[in-house]
Amino acid sequence: MLSLYPNIKPYASHWLAVDKPHELYVEECGSPGGIPVLCLHGGPGAGCDPIHRRYFDPLDYRIVLFDQRGSGRSRPHASLEENTTEALIRDIETLREFLGVRRWVLFGGSWGATLALLYAERFPERVMAMILRGVFLCRREDIDWLYKQGARSIFPDHWADFVRLLDVDQRQNVIAAYYERLTGKDEVARLAAAKAWTTWEARCATLVPSKPLIDQVKEAHTALSMARIECHYLVNNGFLEPDQILRDIAAVAEIPGIIVHGRYDMICPLTQAWALHDAWPRSKLRIINHAGHSASEPGIVDALIHATKDIARDLQ
């Protein structure tokens, strides 16, 4: 079983000004002359992590990571202003032009997979290949699975903790109720809601409970951006039209891709990856037994590194 490549440091970092008030943190790692690959983090709002650099052979790839609006080191932190899916798609294209990349590989998990698909459908001529993990199609049914009916039947104890902050009459619309708290003026209430939000998701993310993951997303800086921005997107249905990704999937018909999905993914059930694979003729679906949603699970790590090796071989 393959494991992550050794730690590497960026050879360059940048601040990229986009729509006011946003500045994006960008870094480049690996080989400046390698295959350009853009790593799209999840959430939205989670931000990049040094581990994200380690899914790629640094001799083969020019690895580009950036923190999306309001996320990670991008500024201003946890900002919802001018923060929409359309804005993020524009940011990716602005970044491509800024870096002088003609075409690149897209690598994204969860919301990062959503964003990769949306960008590729808009700019298919700019995408050489895609590697997607834990596919999230952002349909109403996909949102409801995690925040209404679905995952709560698997984790009733964790769901009870999640909704404990809410009044009984608010529990019929958990997203709206949390949005009210996460955007309110009470700092203590905002942070409590953010930690409850991210804890619920982290508890659902792995086949075997992962305390390090839960502790990571409960850290105040990460929790605030992830919960606020994620809830902001979900309360607006991802700023997408119904079934938009599958509706427009013909645009990426000629782009090769590898989809990696845990069989026991309780955040984004396997039916989403299956539907995408069925509609995308040049995709390969690799279902990982003994894995859930998280990119850090051993079977997912192994499959993602095999995928980056396969894509590098095919493109060289």
Q: Under the CATH scheme, which architecture of the largest domain would be assigned?
A: 3-Layer(aba) Sandwich
Strand content: 15-25%
Mean pLDDT: 97
Rg for CA atoms: 18 Å
Helix content: 40-55%
CATH fold annotation of the largest domain = Rossmann fold
Sequence stretches where pLDDT stays below 50 over 5 or more residues: none
Question: What is shown here, in short?
Answer:
By secondary structure, the chain is of the alpha/beta class.
Can you describe what's shown?
With 316 residues, the protein is of the alpha/beta class. Helices cover 41% and strands 16% of the residues. The chain is built from twelve helices and eight strands. An eight-stranded mixed beta sheet has the order 1-2-4-3-5-6-7-8, with helices on both faces. Helix 1 (85-99) packs across helix 2 and helix 5 (156-163) packs antiparallel against helix 7. The longest helix has 19 residues, at 187-205. The chain is globular. 47% of the residues are buried.
Give the key terms.
316 residues, alpha/beta, Rossmann fold, 2 domains, 8-stranded mixed sheet, 41% helix, globular
